[in-house]
# Entry
Amino acid sequence: MADASWGPLAGLRVLDFSVLLPGPAATVMLADLGADVVKVEPLAGDPFRIMTRPDTMFRNTNRNKRSIAINLKHPASRQVVERLAERSDVAVEAFRPGVAARLGIDSEYLRKINPGLVYCSLSGYGQDGPWRNMPGHDGNYLAAAGALAFSGHWLEKPMRSGLPVADLAGGSLAVIAILAALREREGTGKGAYLDMSLFESALFYTSLRHGMAADRPNRDHLFPFNDLFETADGQRIAFAPVEEHFWKEFQRAIGDFAPALLHADYATPDGRRRRGDELAQILHALFRTKTAADWMALFERHDLPAQLCLTPAQAAAGSQATAREMVLQMDGEPMVPFPVRADGRRGGVLKRGAPRVGQDTLAILEELGFEKQQRAALVEQAVVGIPADAA
# Structure
């Protein structure tokens, strides 16, 4: 699989100072596509290693990377950071504004060393403005961006998704910005400083879907029949007969046992919205009269858009993910590399699992030109860290 994979970013060197989710999510995409990502960690490691249990998210967002542990507060760490910056194409940090400068890894300093460096800061609210120093996490950014003014269900108030949408949106948009800056560098030879914000990423996505004129919560984006419905056996089905031909086919499918849904008021989109509360309640009651298997068989016969709500394990074992080899194994754990195929080749490959803290410190120092005695001195002075069994 590795030999046949599509790795267009091979040769790209990324210096990753980020922790938690948004930054590592961005850099793992680059790593999956072939970039050499060096994860710079404090001697105790990225706090996310122990913050969540199980540490599935850490392992998935830090696979395919190498780890060097550096005490950035030690004055002697400058020589290591400078050599890393000299040879890197991209640097990513995700601290609050001002922290990178205090640690001596800010854009101004590193780009003096390497003017071609593309440096990306991924913070909560951006590097300036009145909110720049506010703490925050995914739900805060979604709320501030207006995203939580809109429900995903006709009969329920807005709720958070089980996915951290702002965090993942910010990481994904950071990758796009980084690749755009690298493209520009091809012509100018100069790098760039990219100021990315999780709040603004959420605002961008909200604007694409809802615009910026809405001044109160509404259901204008919803259809009462495009929702999750519980079945007789307690499973849930995501049903989405949004286009008119799907709705008409649904009426044909259920006309014999649900005549109420053939009422003239439900014949048009406006009518279905006008009586949306009543329609939604009828549909929820209807779905509870049959098992999920019965509904899915009916929908398959009538070519209607419906899917069972699966767990990740069920999705991984499903026929579609299996047929397209979307889920690969790394150290006995299923993982999903960057999801693209290019000219028939798999884009994204699993080369190695998430490294231990400082697992690659000595190898990277050697690549940077530090002699054996110098490497030993840096370890002894606690400028850098290595695993206990590597001492």
Summary: The first strand starts at residue 13 and ends at 16.
